[in-house]
Every structure is written in structure tokens, then in C-alpha cells.
Amino acid sequence: MISTYTVKYLLLVAALISLPKSIHAQPVTSITSPDKSITLTIRNTQTGAVNYQLAYKGKSVIEPSGLGFSLSKPKATLNRFTIVAADTSTTDETWQPVWGETNRIRNHYKELLLTLQDKTDSGIQLRVRFRVFNDGMGFRYEFPPQQALTHFVVADELTQFTLSADHKTFWMPGDYDSNEYLYNTTKLSEVDAVTAADREKDTALKSVIGPKAVQTPLLFKTADGLYISLYEAALLNYPVMHLQLDKKTRTLTAQLVPDAVGNKAYLQTPTQTPWRTILVSDKAADLLTSKLIMNLNESSKIGDSSWIKPQKFVGMWWEMHIGKATWEKAGGKHGANTQNVKKYIDFAAKYGFDGVLVEGWNVGWEDWFGNWKEDVFDFVTPYPDYNLDSLVRYARGKGVRIIMHHETSGSVTNYERRMDAAYQYMVKHDINTLKTGYVGRIIPRGEHHDGQWMINHYQRVAEKTAQYKIMLDSHESAHPTGLHRTYPNWMASEAARGSEFNNAPTLGITPEHTTILPFTRLLGGPMDFTPGLFRFRLNQFDSTRTQQVRTTLAKQLALYVTLYSPLQMVADLPENYEKHVDAFQFIRDVPVDWDDTKILAAEPGDYILMARKEKGKNSWFVGGITDENSRDLSVNLNFLDPGSSYEAVIYRDAADADWDKNPEAYTIERKKVTAKTNLSIHLAKGGGCAIQLIKK
Amino acid sequence: MISTYTVKYLLLVAALISLPKSIHAQPVTSITSPDKSITLTIRNTQTGAVNYQLAYKGKSVIEPSGLGFSLSKPKATLNRFTIVAADTSTTDETWQPVWGETNRIRNHYKELLLTLQDKTDSGIQLRVRFRVFNDGMGFRYEFPPQQALTHFVVADELTQFTLSADHKTFWMPGDYDSNEYLYNTTKLSEVDAVTAADREKDTALKSVIGPKAVQTPLLFKTADGLYISLYEAALLNYPVMHLQLDKKTRTLTAQLVPDAVGNKAYLQTPTQTPWRTILVSDKAADLLTSKLIMNLNESSKIGDSSWIKPQKFVGMWWEMHIGKATWEKAGGKHGANTQNVKKYIDFAAKYGFDGVLVEGWNVGWEDWFGNWKEDVFDFVTPYPDYNLDSLVRYARGKGVRIIMHHETSGSVTNYERRMDAAYQYMVKHDINTLKTGYVGRIIPRGEHHDGQWMINHYQRVAEKTAQYKIMLDSHESAHPTGLHRTYPNWMASEAARGSEFNNAPTLGITPEHTTILPFTRLLGGPMDFTPGLFRFRLNQFDSTRTQQVRTTLAKQLALYVTLYSPLQMVADLPENYEKHVDAFQFIRDVPVDWDDTKILAAEPGDYILMARKEKGKNSWFVGGITDENSRDLSVNLNFLDPGSSYEAVIYRDAADADWDKNPEAYTIERKKVTAKTNLSIHLAKGGGCAIQLIKK
To answer: Where would I find the Glycosyl-hydrolase 97 N-terminal domain in this sequence (chains A, B) (predicted)?
Structure first.
């Protein structure tokens, strides 16, 4: 029997469910981007909710979406507000990065700063700062100093992103510990993260959140031609934001990474969250040149940055992956022995590379993985067959420097105890570049790679290496969010599926993967993808291996242009390069620091064609890549100085090249070109092209 | 309806339940203590269980009790064994501690080493090493290197202690984070840990395990006159062992402290557990002189220990507790200001004390507690009103040294990052004694004060301070287990309810508390109890305070004899001491290092009377204390050199003294005594006496 009470209750529930629709929210305020293409609208509904809405040239980008927080200490739900103030301002400034894809960056936005008062009796005030650029928007929460809030614990962030339609979506499974997935391309409604993650057999550690949780950066292409990216900027003292999808409402809600006891963040006023970013354009190319995320980061904290030098390096690394050598000494195939490292130093010196990365140099690799062991490496004890002192002298004599490797095995408490001694050891040995690694489950046990505690750790490493004038390249760290502006010594990170997965037995690296990365992962900063493989059947030292790199050789060259990193590895073995010295010339010549970047053509998941001008020089370099489809690209050289003549050195797939059947077939041609030239280039399946343009 | 299956099942269950009784286990082997008073019997039952049983002079100490482990990785239950070998041996050696209650310690035991093979197909072997001394037994598990076991994770230790009757029990609630409880004295069957813990309102942090969980050391007095203590020794790389009580079977089972994800210990072969110890005697006094726990620890790891010097110190501490000053600078009552510390240095110099402890010297106290904040103190930044450089010079000129204070606020990750810099800062400032503190919830979040991770931390601090030649006194650390043998620079710890609780508003320190501590907490090592209060109404600076110290002044003197520590605080304010300079003389004279210790009379919870001979001198010091009852003690001086004459300086309660009504009433008398003298001393309620015996 349904009682009167029950009926009343049901009516009330029905009323509540329909509430958001039935209330005619009053627009409170709106601002537009400097060029008026983007409009942000803020509404304060009758219930007190504050929603934001974003439109681009009249098209919906984000439907009205919620803002707010749930705190576990003090216990409070902050999602009903009175708007106390709404202040607007405009900023237009230009700054110079220490290194990068361009030598000047314009930071031009309109800002709306909302001051919100919690409608309950908590007395808590917070602010939401919106910045609307011509290519998107960022917003963050700020908690000013106040009586009602000093220390607080975030249970959940209630930020939402509601989409207008069932867009085509480029997504990875949400995961607290790994971002080394392939991208899935489906309709938003078809996201199935657990199934996708289950397909991935080669990831060392997975902490999949659930079937409807996805990672950022998350990329959409709408039916009406918009490219939209959801991400974050300036991720400091806060966990990574993943997103939980409600398929019915097409709403993505922030899913912060929990700590060992389930809390999300421990904060103290005054404080703020990272920026939540929404890039939007009707041209895919605009995402690739967007500086919005860097602009939302603080300017450099490093006063004298003269010691920070973009570089290319070779190294002791891929030979472990393909079974020629091992990291560990036991077993008789130890790669990092003095003689072998000398060979790499000789090779670097001969071909003009700056550094030699040496992995497996230090004691501990016999027992480093899989046991959640805390005391693994001490970072200062070389294996007895690795004579670091003599190698440092030898390298110095040849103008080459050794690059340090600190694999933490996820035991971060151990690393933090030893960081100072480890960096002093580097300085003593004339080593000023460091590759870190975080393979395995994190210690403190219960913490995750993407949690607040680890985010703070990565920052500590960036700051401490800066104190020691050490350049940093972090692997298995959280996704980058433009912090290389603030810490320009933190030059690169992996934080995505990199070239090492070419060796993975199952999914590997698909041909399309490198056409998606620049639209997603690379929005946050340079990636140490480790391109430059020249041999694609990986049975060189182990005839049982059937893995194959799904790329042509010309595409590997192109990646040096299309996947930016100021620390760029030349990843293959010396003997494999010396079989193709003519093609190798491109890798020797391509720079790692640029004055300018032009996107000539781009479509995520399909192809990218871009041109970059060498820093302080008159040379341009063009890189073009395609997915599993062959493609003819038209390369319009109108970015060259008008009236000047250039020599073009064109490295491209041979006519019969094919990533699967004939990956090493390439041709190199030289021709005179001008700004009026239009080159027509054929890319093979999984292929690419690389062009050097030298002003005459 | 009960099916045939059900009936069979019920019969089976009944059979299983009665199994331990119905199987007539075969004794496998037994050994006795060197003096034959203690017999250990090992049985391997038909089910494969290996039980141990302990008897003292024919009386039951431990009934047949189980041994074993549950592992979570590899998944295995190790409690059914084949005994592969049973080896016996005898050791009798004597060693000299760096400092202590006696100058020589005999280590005399018979050993039985069982090698056990798991009866399942795991292939795992382990050993149990039993050592039977004249005053008890220790045993530990050892995991030798083996194919079947390398890295493993302990889910539970299955060690049991089954008692023969419902003994009188001195117990504290089992707690993962605090050992600062009063002892409860009840029958074993009356243990109610949650109710007891709920009565304790003044403990900063409690993580009570459950109603039937108690801490070790756990003390019993049996109806047939035995005193039994259950504890542990050499607690390294393993969590603290608490005990879960099954009242029906009177069985206590090991309850290890879990980590953030619920595991107990991460181990790698070869490894071993701490020793589980059982002290037993028919004389209570024997527990107080037992060296069993120290003997089960490894010998000193510190080669040159000449820099380790027992000492007495005054300090900036109690005045914060009673409201004269504050740790924090904000508020205008900052204690650790240069002028005030100078006063303490003057006081120490005037009365001949070695050190001045200064708490609240460093920036951070405004916001140090209760927020699980990670970056609190940096341990190298003094408040601006504390001129450390000038104070160090000033102190040195007066032959006094400042004692450093590192309050971690439980943020151990932060402390570990900064330890090296903090110790270098100490060395630079001529400071070689350190008091650490761990008040508050531990970071790494989810870890506990008593968990394996923290046990490893305490060891790291002991080892690192030793490298810097720093003497260590740790507060809020896990209970001590004789590690001061191995790390003699780790001279004292708190790890129990200390004198500071005299200021607590509710339960405080009961008069009996100090008569229990030597039978329990102090079995593991010296305690920084901070005795020496001379003013007992605590309204000196805050007239609203009603707390009162429940002791007489003479008892405070006696504690310097009965509560051993080589780092002994002289805890009250200079102005309070200077009102009783005659009584203060005892504290000036009493040493902190001894050649010998004699227990003249003792009963846990009632009274303790002991005599100690000063290290390298002919003077003896006697301390006697009582609980809430007045008592007449007979002090037989037959420990003095026969035929020699001594001057006795007797500090005792005045005839009308009473902890409650007249605590500061004492008399001092001097008389000639010899080894034939028998002094009769009256102790007031909550009173005590202290006697100095100077050879003439």
C-alpha cells in the first residue's frame, strides 16, 4: 500500500529530478574571448547552483555545467552559492620561453573572477577564476584566507563538463597509476574503459577506475566540426583529474585520484586548484599551436636558466628492450659495462650528439620490480663493471656528457631519502641531465602515481634538480600540465605510451598513435617518446620475437619534428643507424629548439604535417606523418622567406614502402625550393616524410 | 529439515572442534633453562601443528600454544609442519653495556632451533629459534634463503600464548598509534579495552584495535605466585605485536599492526621476526633485573662509543605544559626566546647539569597539530627571537650544551627528507643530543606509529644519528625492545604515559603508575619519564587549573633511582627548584649510570624499593616508591661493603606528608650506616624516599 507520506515523497522526488529543467535560470554574467569567438556564460540558478556554459562561434562547447566541492573536513558540500562579486579584467602580454616550439608566446585573455559565498551556514567563501582566450578557456577554484576555512580535506571536486552531443571521442581508460595506454576512438556513449584496459596486456601496473572513467586530456570532434579538448594546467599540490562519464546526460565529472586513505587533497588556505582547461577551435591545427596551458602556468622560478640546454642523446636503453643486453648484471648480458658505454660515447661524438643515457648502471636491478620493495636502489653505487670515473673523463674528452638514470621502482620514500646524495653524486661526476623512472607500485604504499602526494614529489624533484642545475626527464610520472614554463629544467616527461611499447608483444604502438599524441598528451608539454628506430623487425638478438615496429623509417625521422621534446632521444642501436647513414643525417641535423612552428595540415588520428624554424637560424624542418593509411600531402612552403632560395633535402617513403611489408624503403632527394613551391609528398601506410630546408 | 549432508557436516565440525583435545600429541623434544627451573616442551600434533609449552618449577606458564603464519603473498597458511631438525646448543657469555643499570651482563641460555617444513605443497621452510634463560624464554621465526620463498608479505602472525588460569593482569588497550595509557589491573577475563580507552580523554591520538586487544608488555600475577611478562625483543623491520584475547580459551594471539593497505610486513629471505619473550619468576624483583630482552638483541653496531655520555638535563618544556609559556611564537608567550633560554643555561651551569632542552625553538608551531599537514617544520629555522648562535656560545662558555628538539608532528616523510640537513645543523651548532617527537597522525597517511614502516624509520633515525654522533631520545615512538644494546646512542624513549600527563585534566598519572612501569614498559629500555616535579598544584600560572600531581616531593626524588634513564630530565622550573634547594641536592647528586642494581622489595602496582651503585664510585643510591597507600619499608643495607662506614642522606616524606593534602612535606636526615644497618622508612600515600649512601 502506498501511504500518503509515500505519495508526497514520490512527488517531491519527481519535483527534484525535474528541478534543473523547470527552473529558468537567470544569466548572471558573460564574457567573451578577445576575438569574440568564445562566450562564457555564468548562471546562478534559483537553487543556488552556479553553472558555466561555453560557446564557440555560436556553437555549444560546454552546456551549462556544475561547479563545486565536497569536503570531508570540515564536512561541507559547496555547490549552492550566492555570487558576492564578479570582477572582470583583460590581460595581453608576451613572454619568451627558455626553449620551445616558438620563441615568443602571447598570453591574451579576458578574466572573470567570481566570488562565491556558500549558501549553507558554513561561512565558506571561494572564488572561481575564469580566463577566456581566443582558443579556449581555463578556470580554477581559489580558497582565500578566511576564518571559516584554514586546513581542509577535499572529498570530491564537483566540476562538470556537459557536452551537447554524442561526439567522436579520443579517450584512454581512467587509471590512478598509468597513462601508458593507446587511445580509443569511439562515440562518447561507447566509452567502455574496463574492456579497453583489459585489452592492454603489456602495462606493468594498472589501477583502472571503472567502466566510465577516462583520462584527460580528452579530445572530441563534434559533428559540426569543432575540436574540443578537456585538460588541466598547473597541476601542483593536487591530484590528477580524471573524468567520470554519465552517458545519459553526457556529463563528465571530475574524478580526483585518492590517497591511501581515500581522501583526494589536503589543502590550506590560501590555495587554489589546478586550472581546468577547455580548448576549442574549428581548426584541428589550432590545438597544436595553443599556448593556453603554458599561459596558465606561473612564469619561470629559475633565475639563471643559462645552464638549461636542449639536447639530443643516444643511449643504453633500446638494446635492453630488444634482448641484446640487460639492466641487471646477473646473467652475463649486462649492458652498462664500461666497454659498451665507451662505444656509445664514441658514437655520440662521431655523429655530434650531446649525451649518452646509461640505464642499468647501478646496483639493484636483480631485484627491483614486482615486490613492492622499499630499499632497492641507492643511486650512488655503480655495478663493478661500470667505471663511471673513467667514463666521465673519456666522455668529457670527446665533448659528450653522460646522462644519469634514477629508476625509483616506485619506491619514492626511498628516493626522497637519497635525492640529495644522488644529485651531489651527479654534480661530482659532471652529469647534469637526469632521467627518472617510477615503474611499479608506489611506496608510500596505498599512494598512486597520480595522487596529490606524488604530484608534490614530482614538484620537489623539479625544484631540487633545479637547485643542482640538473635537467630533468621523468618517466612514469603524471601527465604534464605546462609546468615546464615554471620549471624549465623539467624539460620532458614520458607520461604516455612511448616508443618502448613498439617492443610490447600485444597491442604495441599503432600507426595512428603518433597522430593523436600531439592533440592530447603533448598539449601538456614535451614528451620523451624516444623516436628514431631504424630497424623494425625486433628479432635482431632474439629470433623468437615477432613484434614489429609499425612505422616506416621516414616516419621515424618525421617524429623529430612532429613530437616536440627539447630532450630528444636517438633511440636505436649504433649498428642500426650505421646501416642507413644517409637517412641518419636528418636526425643529426634536426634541432631541438625552435623559433617558430606552423601547422600545415592536421587531423587527429589521421595525419599531421608541420614546419618548424630552427632557433636562431634560417633553416626550416618539416615533418609529416600518417596513420595506417597511405596519403598524399601537399606541402605549401609559403612560410619561407619570400624571395629567398632554399635547398630542400626530402626524406620520404619509397614508392613501395609500407610499414608492414617494406618499412625501411625510403628515398632522399634534394631540390631547390622557394616560398612559392608546393611539394607533393606521398606517405606510405604508416609512413611519413621529413624535409630540411636550408636557406641559400 | 536437516539433510544427510548437513548432519555429516555438523559431525565433521564437531570432530574438528574437539580435535585438539582428542589427539594425544607426542612430545617431540624439550629443553630446560641452565638452572633447570624452566622447561620448554615442543609437540608436533597429528594434524601437523607445532605447539610450545612453558613451565616454571612445575607450574604452568604457557599452556600448549600455536606457532605459524598466514602469508598474503605468496598465499599460504603456515601452521602444519614436519619437523625437519631440532638442534640444541648452550651459550654462556658476559658483555659490558656502554651504559646502564649494571656494568656487566651475563647472557646464559640453552637454545633449541627447530627447522620446520610446511606440510602443504608450498615447499616453504622456516625455523623457530627458542632460547631458554633462567628468567624466561625468547623465540623467533627465521626464514632462510630458499627457492620457495624470497619476497613475501605477512597477512598475520599466528603465534599464541595460552594461559593456564584467569590471572591478575596489568594491561593497556591495544592501539596502533599510542602507548600513552594508564595500566588497568583486572582479571584476564575482565579485559575491556574499548571501555578503558574511552576513559582516556587526554591522549592526542588513539587507534584502538578492539575490546579484546591489549598491548605488550603484558604482565600477569598468577594465583600460585608467578609473575609472567609477555613482550618482544629486537623489534626491527616488523610491526609491533599487540595481542588479541580469546577469553574462553585464555589464548592471546599476535595482532600485528597493519600498514596503509592492511598488510602487516614486507619481508625478504633471509629474514627473521623479532623475539617473542616470556619472562617468569616467583619473585617480582627478578623481572626488574632481567636482562633477557637486551640479551636477545644484537651487540652494539657503534664502534667508537666514547661520545655517548649519560646525562641529566633541564629544559624549556614543563613551563609550556603549565601555561607559563608556549611553544609557538604567536600569542606573546613564546618560551624559547634567547633571554629565557639563557636563564636555563645559567641554572644548569649553577647546579651542574649537562644539558638544556629547548622546545618550541623552530618556526612552525603556530600550525603544527591536528591537520595531517605534511610540510610543518624544517628543523633548521629558529624563531627570530631565538638566537641559537649566541646561545651555543653562551652555553659552551658555561660548560653546558643545548639539547635539540625535532617535533615531526607525525609527518615522517617530511622529516626523512630533512634529516641530513637537520643533523648537519646540529653538528654545526655543537649540539649532540636530540629529542624527537611524533605527535599526531603519521604521514605517509594510513601508516601507524607501530607499523613496520615506522619501525624502520625509528631504526633509520638511530643509525643516522649515530653517524653524526648524536644521542637520541625519542617520544611517541613504538615501545622499546632492547635496541639500546644495538644502538647505544638511542638512549631513551618515552613510549608510555610520562610525567607530562600529570598536567592532563582527566586521569593524569595515578600514584600506582610508576610502580607498574618498571615491570612493563621499562623492560624494553630506558624511559624519558621526565621526573623531578617539585610543585604539585598546577595553578601557578593559570589559576583556573585544578590538575594536581599525585605524588609527594620525596617520591619525585626516588623516581631518579626507580625509573632508569641515561638521559634523565630535571623537569620542573628553576624557580620551583630554588624553593627547595636542600631536596634538590639529591637530584644534583644522583647519577645516570650504574655499576650495579639490587631490588630490595617490589610488587607491581604497589611498591618498589631498589638500590643502585654509582658507576665507578663507591656511592649507592636507594629509591623507594609506593602507590596510593602509605607503607613502611625496611631497607636492609647489606649490599654495602662489609666493615665500611657510610653516611646516609635520607630524603623522605614528612610524617604528615600525603600526595593529596601535603605533598611538599619532606624531611632530610643524615646518619652513619653500615652493611648491618636496617633502616625503617615510612612512605606517605603516593610517597617515596631517596637515600644517598656515601662511603667514608
So the answer is: 31-298
Q: How many interface pairs between A and B have CB atoms less than 8 angstroms apart?
A: 75
Q: Is A169 helix (H, G, I), strand (E, B) or coil?
A: strand
Q: Give the CB-side neighbour count of residue B318, counting CA atoms within 13 A.
A: 32
Q: Mean pLDDT over residues A208-220, rounded?
A: 98
- Tell me: pLDDT of A633 over 80: yes
A371/B260 touch (CB, cutoff 8 Å), yes or no? no
**How many Cα atoms sit within 13 Å of A4 on the Cβ side?**
0
Residue B14 has pLDDT above 50, yes or no: no
- What are B605-631's pLDDT values in tens digits? 999 999 999 999 999 999 999 999 999
What is the Cα–Cα distance from B378 to B425, expressed in whole angstroms?
11
**Between B374, B413, B445, which is nearest A261 by CB?**
B445
What is the spatial distance between Cα A70 and Cα A72, in angstroms, rounded to a whole number? 7
What residues of B are in contact with residue A268 (Cβ under 8 Å)?
A: 367, 371, 373
Task: Say if A463 is an interface residue toward chain B (CB within 8 Å).
Answer: no
- How high is the pLDDT of residue B618? 95
- Cross-strand pairs, B344: none
Using a CB–CB cutoff of 8 Å, tell me whether B606 touches chain A: no
Identify any residues that bridge with B233 across adjacent strands, giving them in sequence order.
B275
| Cα dihedral B473/B474/B475/B479 (nearest 10) | -120
Does residue B9 surpass a pLDDT of 90? no
Give the Cβ contact number of residue B283 at 10 Å.
14
Could you read off the pLDDT of A440-485 as tens digits, one per residue?
Answer: 999 999 999 999 999 999 999 999 999 999 999 999 999 999 999 9
Query: Is residue B17 scored above 70 in pLDDT?
Result: no
- The residues in B 363-392 lying below 8 A from A, measured between CB atoms, are 367, 371-374
Q: Who contacts A322 (Cβ-Cβ below 8 Å, separation ≥6)?
A: A503, A538, A540, A541, A542, A545
If you average pLDDT over residues A121-136, what whole number do you get? 97
Angle (nearest 5°) at CA A349 between A345 and A354: 85
Query: Domain spans of chain B?
Result: 16-281
CA-to-CA distance for A393 and A345, rounded, in angstroms? Answer: 11
CA atoms of B293 and B234, how far apart (whole Å) = 8
Distance (Å, whole) CA A196 – CA A213: 11
What whole-number distance in Å separates Cα of residue A620 and Cα of residue B42?
Answer: 83
Is A344 in contact with A314 (CB distance < 8 Å)? yes
pLDDT score recorded for residue A410: 98
Handedness of CA A481, A605, A586, A645 (dihedral sign): negative
* Chain B interface includes A450 (CB < 8 A): no
User: Amino acid letter at A226?
Assistant: L
Written as one string, the DSSP assignment of B632-694 is EEEEE-TTSPTT--EEEEEEEE-TT-BTTTBTT-EEEEEEEE-TT-EEEEEE-TT-EEEEEEE
Query: Tell me: the pLDDT tens digits for A364-391?
Result: 999 999 999 999 999 999 999 999 999 9
pLDDT grade for B19, boundaries at 50, 70 and 90: very low
What pTM value is reported for the model? 0.94
Q: Which three cell numbers mark B571?
A: 623537569
B502-521 pLDDT per residue, tens: 999 888 999 999 999 999 99
Distance CA A233, CA A140 (A): 9
Contact criterion met (CB < 8 Å) for A261 and B446: yes
Cell (9 digits) for B662: 601535603
Q: What is the DSSP string of A226-265?
A: -EEEEEEE---SS--EEEEEETTTTEEEEEEPP-TTS--E
Region B519-524: what's the mean pLDDT?
98
User: Across the interface, do A259 and B445 touch by the CB < 8 Å criterion?
Assistant: yes
Would residue A253 be called left, alpha or beta, if left means φ above 0 and alpha means ψ between -120 and 50 degrees? Answer: beta
Q: What is the CATH number of domain A16-281?
A: 2.70.98.10
